[in-house]
Amino acid sequence: MNLIRRLREAPVTVGLIAVNLLVYLIMVAVSRRIVSFDNGTMIGAGALVSGGDIETSHWRWLTAAFVHVGLLHIFMNVWVLAQIGVISERALGRGLFVATYVVTGILGNVLSSAHAAGSPVPRISAGASGAIMGLIGMATTFAWRSGQRAVARSLAFNILLVLGVGLSLTAGGVALVDNAAHIGGLVAGAAVGLVRVQVRRPAPRWLDLALIAASIALTAAAFAVVQISSAAS
After folding, report:
1. Percent of the chain with pLDDT over 90
2. Catalytic, out of 182, 215, 229, 233
3. Domain boundaries along the sequence of the chain
4. Residues forming beta bridges with residue 36, ordered by sequence position
5. Is 58 a catalytic residue?
6. Which residue in 129, 215, 230, 233 is the catalytic one?
7. Predicted structure pTM score
8. pLDDT (tens digit per residue) in 73-108
């Protein structure tokens, strides 16, 4: 309950959660499934398709950051997103927070596509976790370089836990985690955090609003292009 109350202080995080939930509910309405979705539903919603010599829209690098495999998947991602949002959105800047979600989500999926490029069969990937790892990476480097070492160590532990579990599952032959997207998002987010810590003052309001507006416009355009290209194919 405390987390839910604190979300009032993180409106951008609430907005990101709302978009993820909206996409999920649309997928539920289309597929009439709740617990998990089939490949067709995920691809239709905007999941990333890589490998297998299949050419798909690069706009999926962004839309895939809002698409989830099933109920447990979105619950876990939304829970972590809410936690990182309430502790870092205001400190880092609301505009930068949403822009980092978008940019690290894209870059994580770019690395995922590159990793799957040589696969003989198509691979479907989706989820907000690459973008969330970007947000955690940004918050961790910012906290460490700004002297908040206890916070940085706590965040770093979560990073190691996620990467450790993902790599262990992959090594065991369980293809449930997109480690490339996690690593790509994390590295990109850490770089943003290193730049942000050099700027001591909060971003001006006009820049915050511009970053939020640009992120909304880019995300809306991505879903529009993916849906139009899917309907035309």
Report:
1. 67
2. 182
3. 2-223
4. 70
5. no
6. 129
7. 0.93
8. 999 999 999 999 999 999 899 999 999 999 999 999
